[in-house]
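Narrative summary of target 7.
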Amino acid sequence: MASTNSTGRTSPIWSSWIDEVFNRDLPSVFTSNFNMGMTLPKVNIRETKDAYFVDMAVPGLQKSDFQIHLDNQVLSISTELEEDKEEEGVNYTRREFGYASFKRSFSLPETVNEGAIKAEYVNGVLSIHLPKKEEAKQKPARTIKIS
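Modeled conformation, tokenized:
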């Protein structure tokens, strides 16, 4: 595709060219079973007056599958899984290797009490409790008298 500009010259319409490049049929080696890994897990982050909570939906794993690290106020949650399946038929043996991993990182506010962070994995949800430092906790409202 091409368009004509005010000088009478023709030039390709870039958006059409880009669409054409990315919409071509790719060789089957690139499309068949390419994404055997895990998608990026969904995360809910919430704050209360005393703490922050990070809840991550990661069903089908074991708590030993996770690595949780805190470095320089960055919380990183990751997992790497390898799976080896073997299927035997009448005249063949088929081996299939699977590999799934993810890493999510979150910058923590300075108000987090790093020494009191806790994590638990229950019913497919990894929950990380990030308590606030005492001075950062929300204080109850009070009335100030005018003198």
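The longest strand covers residues 74-88.
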